Structures are given as C-alpha cells and as structure tokens.
From TrEMBL:
<dbReference type="InterPro" id="IPR042099">
    <property type="entry name" value="ANL_N_sf"/>
</dbReference>
<keyword id="KW-0436">Ligase</keyword>
<dbReference type="GO" id="GO:0004467">
    <property type="term" value="F:long-chain fatty acid-CoA ligase activity"/>
</dbReference>
<feature type="domain" description="AMP-dependent synthetase/ligase">
    <location>
        <begin position="101"/>
        <end position="457"/>
    </location>
</feature>
<protein>
    <submittedName>
        <fullName>Fatty-acid-CoA ligase</fullName>
    </submittedName>
</protein>
<dbReference type="InterPro" id="IPR000873">
    <property type="entry name" value="AMP-dep_synth/lig_dom"/>
</dbReference>
<dbReference type="GO" id="GO:0046949">
    <property type="term" value="P:fatty-acyl-CoA biosynthetic process"/>
</dbReference>
<dbReference type="Pfam" id="PF00501">
    <property type="entry name" value="AMP-binding"/>
</dbReference>
Length: 618
C-alpha cells in the first residue's frame, strides 16, 4: 500500500494534434447540421435571424424519406444510441418560443460575424475582450474567435461598474485588445473613455445612439449587413503553443490574475467532455460567470461532443436555473456548491423541474457530505459527482470506476472526496517544511502535470510556480489530504485552517455538521480573528437560526470536540446581507463573511462593555 501523498495520473490518451479549435467544436456540423447547438430560454427565437438564416439556393428533398434512410445507414450507431437513450432520459422540448440555434446556424452566424471583423482589419492572433454575461451572444463570440484565430479574453461584466473601472483599465493595459464586446450603450461609452495602447473597435449588443463612439457598431447592424460569400474554413491552423484564451482567476486571495490558456491545454480540457455520446436531448445547462474557466470550457467541450448547451442568460439564481431546466430538459448540470444551495432553498423547486437531470457535477474547492446529500435530494434521478480544478490547473481529478452512491460517498471528517488523480495530472500534499506528507495527513496542495498554466500574465505571483522534473508545478491556496485508497479531499483554504487546543480546526467540518443537523438550513462557517488576537469560528445561517448560540456551541463541542467550538452565530441579515456574498467566480464570499462577522463581534463586545460600565455606575 502506498504511504506517500504524491499522486501521478500517468500519461494522457492520444488525441488529434492537428485539429483547430474551430474544427473541434464543429466536429459534427457537416454530418448533423440540424442538431441543436445552443438553447437560450430567456432570449427571443428570432434573435439575429439575419446572421443565422440560410441564403443559398433552395434545398430540395432535404427531409425526404430516402435522404433520412441514407443518413441513418451512414451512421447507424448514432441513431441506435439515440433511440436507446431516448428510453432513459426525457425527450427534448418540442416547439419552443425561445432561441434555439442548430450547429449549422451557429456556424453561419460565426462565419458572417467573422468576415465582418476581418473586413474591419482585426487579424488572426488579435485579442478580443468579452465583457458579456452567459448568453447566446457570448457563445457566438466564443465560436467566432475560434474561427478567426483570435485570443478570447473573458472579463467579468461587473468590471464595468463605476467603482471597478480602475481594475478594468489595468486589464486593458495588460491585454492590449483589438476588439471589445459589451451589452449596453452605456457600457460602450464607459469602455471607449478608457485608455488603450492601440486603436480598438467595439461591438455592442444594444442599438447605439447617433453620437456613439468612433469604431463601435451594434451587432444588429452587423446582422443586417450582407457580408460577401465564401467557403467556411478556420483562418488559424492548430498551433499547440498558441494562446487560445485568457481567463482571470476569481481573486479569492487577492485581485484576479490572468492565465494564458494555450491551444494544447484547451484541447486537453475539452477532451474530458468531448467523449460524451451524441444525446437525443439537451446536453447541459450553463449558468454562472462567463469570465471564469468553468463556463467557457463547458460550452466548448459540449459542442466538441456534438451536443447542445442551454445557457441561463438571466440573472443566475435558483429560480432562473430551475426555469432553464424546465424549458430545456438537460441531462446534466455542473454546479458550484453555492448554486446548489440557491436551488435547494428556491420555492420553485419541484421534482418535475429537475427530473431530466441524470448527472450532477459539484465543484467549488471544498465539498461536504451535507452537500452531496442535498444534491441527491434535489436531483433524485441523478448520479452525484464531485470534481476539483481551477483556472491555473484544470482536470486534476476524475472518477475512473463507478461513482459511489450518495449514501456511500467517501468522506473524511465531513469532507467529500473530490475523486482520484486524473490522467496527465500530478499532485502532492506538502508539510510546512516542504516535505511530502504521508497519507491521511493534511498539508498544502501542489498541482503539476500537463494541465498547469506556465504562470500569470505579467509575471504576477511568480513564487507560486516552479519547475520540477521538467514539469510546471503550482502551489495553490488549498489544503488537502490523500487517504489510503487514493481519494483526494480538499479540506479548505490554507489560510482558513488553524490549530486550537492541539488540534487542527477545519471550518468545513463544522459547516457539514450543522447542515447535517439542520437539514433545511443553508450554513457557512468561516474562520475569524477574535479581539484577543486568537483564531476562532463563526457560523452564518441564511435565514432563521434554529437554536441558541449556547446550544449550538454545546452541540458542536460534543460532536467534534471543544477545539471546533463556535465563537459566534448570526444570520445573513444580521451581517448586513440580503443574500450570500459571492466572488467573481460565483462562490460564496467567505472573506466578506469573515469581515462582517468580525465587525459584528467587535460591535457586540463594545456594546457589552458600555452596558457593564453603565451598570457599574453608582
């Protein structure tokens, strides 16, 4: 039995080294052009019809009996598997009143938009900055950039808020883009006022006023134009070293940092999803931040498999996610733990709303046993799978064998396993002296292998990357352990874990205990610094606190130990929040909760001291 917390996933399987990103995401367009590629339940069916419509000679006998027979005979496995799967998953929606683009329509729109941009002088290799939320337009920009060989840089649209414009200016200075894509005319004006080292054009989704900035155009005007015809062919051939995408980190530890994703790394990430068979239903629903790696990787990967993605273009919350599931009936969904909580607490949650889901992938660093249990309740027909990865290091874990049921899911002190080491990945858990830990020992997580970025843009935080045995290693901010069976448990952010009374204190273990006890409550437990300067724990409930502070503290101390005692309890409203604060990535903002909890405790202490002083006065 292995005793070292060093894991090597071995080599990756073979893949086609010559396919461009465009070829990968349109792999089935020529064979099955009418297969749905994109569904957007909150956007109108005729959106940008002039971009997607067919303008060639009239097609004859496209749907004749002989044509359909020959098509089935050419690829019998596809039709057999679709028929078999149709007995397992609910059928896709029939006629819809919302936007549905086939792969051929997506290709047409990408080609027409791509030709327009080339005519404007935007060359292959140029950087395109997208400040769009998840939407059909965001997906179209991703496809067009793949066609023209542009570097797509996805930035969070909240950077357009007045208080964040300085941060947006820093990103522009770093990226030096040739094109911006924004949603509103106000956003176009804000971007146009920023400084850029080169003349940049811009596309706005909304109609622009007559006094709009020079170089800017509405996508509606592009749709109404008549680009010249021509063959569909990607301008950029495959180059493993070429930067295909720039994604920024969530900024959970400090400000977001840019990661340049090379074509080879992106192809490797897409290969994880592209092996999914052709499904007779919607492949997945995408909701969250378009600026983070999860959403664009999921979109491109599901297209590479020949399946469709439903985009939740509305404000991402429990209600809109459930609405998207009802409208499009997807077979799978990838969720952050916070998104799961919003679905669980939504009044619109019903068994019918989630009945089509067969696979749920839970991500978000630390995942508790309570989250696995809750996911099983929300999605009773689904297999619950966990995963671990980040912008700097994708595809770290996998489940090679049959995924355990929710009742028997491997856990450690309330923390659910994130799987085993994935092919092509390396991992080691390191102690404070830099030595590799033994199995079942907590240490800092170092990630290596073929899926690690070489560093941050501009050389930021270069100390987090190092080379060893010809591989790049990344020191991430999480602590973890590896058990005897090789399961990986991410126990929390390293700076949130501390020692008290001779024991290691893990906030997530207390969080799990409280959610397992109070099954209807959404709870977050954060570390805090007490007025004495010592470390402690604070529990935050979404709504009503079911027990008194003393009773909760007694329960936690009895179940886990006095070292994990709670030093304060409050609900979101008491901390000044209407909903859970989130990071750019959409994860629960524990740093914001920590600051608010410390301020509340200090205020309570000051009030108590004042009351005691008044009471002691003669």
């Amino acid at each position: 039995m292995a005793t070292s917390a060093f894991l090597d996933g071995g080599k990756l399987g073979p893949r086609d080294p010559t396919s461009s990103l465009w070829d990968m995401i349109h792999t089935c367009t020529s064979k099955y052009p009418d297969r749905p590629a994109l569904l957007s339940p909150t956007q109108p069916a005729n959106l940008y019809k002039r971009l997607t419509e067919y303008r060639g000679p009239e097609r004859k006998h496209a749907e004749s009996f002989i044509y359909r027979f020959l098509k089935r005979a050419a690829d019998p496995w596809y039709h057999f598997s679709s028929y078999a799967l149709s007995w397992v998953v609910p059928p896709p929606p029939g006629k819809t009143g919302y936007l549905v683009w086939s792969f051929e329509e997506l290709q047409r729109a990408s080609v027409r938009l791509g030709r327009y941009l080339r005519d404007c002088g935007i060359k292959t290799g140029s950087t395109v900055v997208s400040l769009l939320p998840v939407s059909a337009e965001w997906a179209l920009v991703m496809s067009t950039c793949a066609l023209n060989g542009y570097v797509i840089a996805t930035l969070d649209h909240r950077l357009l808020d007045a208080e964040n414009l300085d941060m947006l200016q820093e990103s522009i200075d770093e990226l030096c883009p040739s094109l911006f894509v924004v949603a509103t005319a106000r956003e176009a004006m804000s971007v146009a006022m920023l400084k850029s080292r080169q003349v940049a054009s811009g596309i706005c989704l909304a109609q622009l006023p007559p006094t709009h900035p020079a170089g800017w155009v509405s996508i509606h005007d592009i749709a109404e134009s008549e680009p010249p015809g021509g063959a569909v062919a990607p301008l950029a051939t495959y180059d493993a070293e070429r930067t295909a995408m720039i994604v920024y980190t969530s900024g959970s530890s400090d400000k977001p940092k840019g990661c340049a994703i090379q074509s080879s790394l992106l192809a490797q990430s897409l290969s994880v999803i592209s092996g999914v068979p052709l499904l007779p239903c919607t492949g997945t629903v995408i909701s969250g931040s378009a600026a983070q790696s999860r959403c664009p990787f999921l979109l491109l990967g599901i297209w590479a498999s020949g399946n469709s993605a439903a985009v939740n273009a509305a404000t991402p919350n429990g209600e809109t996610l459930l609405m998207s599931m009802v409208a499009t009936r997807p077979v799978s969904i990838s969720l952050l733990v916070g998104q799961l909580g919003s679905i669980y607490s939504s009044p619109k949650l019903t068994k019918d709303a989630t009945r089509s889901i067969r696979i749920v992938i839970l991500i978000g660093s630390t995942i508790t046993k309570a989250s696995i249990k809750r996911a099983g309740e929300v999605f009773p027909n689904a297999t619950i799978q966990t995963g671990f990865g980040m912008t700097e290091a994708a595809n770290i874990t996998t489940w090679e064998s049959k995924i355990p049921k929710t009742e028997t899911f491997p856990t450690w002190n309330g923390i659910a396993a994130s799987g085993m080491i994935a092919p092509g990945a390396k991992l080691k858990v390191v102690d404070g002296n830099g030595a590799i830990c033994c199995r079942n020992e907590i240490g800092q997580l170092h990630l290596g292998g073929s899926s690690i970025v070489s560093g941050y843009l501009g050389g930021a935080r270069a100390n987090l990357f190092y080379k060893e045995d010809c591989h790049v290693w990344y020191i991430c901010g999480d602590s973890a352990l590896v058990d005897d069976d090789g399961y990986i448990y991410v126990v929390g952010r390293s700076n949130s874990i501390f020692e008290r009374d001779g024991r290691v204190v893990i906030p997530a273990s207390v969080e799990n205990l409280l959610e397992m006890q109070f099954t209807k409550s959404i709870v977050a437990v954060t570390d805090i610094t007490l007025s004495s300067g010592k470390r402690g724990l604070f529990a935050v409930f979404q709504g009503t606190i079911p027990w008194s502070y003393d009773k909760i503290n007694e329960f936690v101390s009895r179940e886990i130990g006095r070292s994990h005692r709670i030093d304060g309890v409050a609900n979101l409203a008491e901390l000044g929040f209407n909903s859970w604060p989130t990071s750019i990535a959409g994860k629960i903002g524990y740093s914001a909760l920590k600051t608010a909890a410390e301020n509340l405790l200090y205020a309570r202490l000051a009030c108590s001291v004042t009351s005691d002083s008044v009471a002691s006065m003669p």
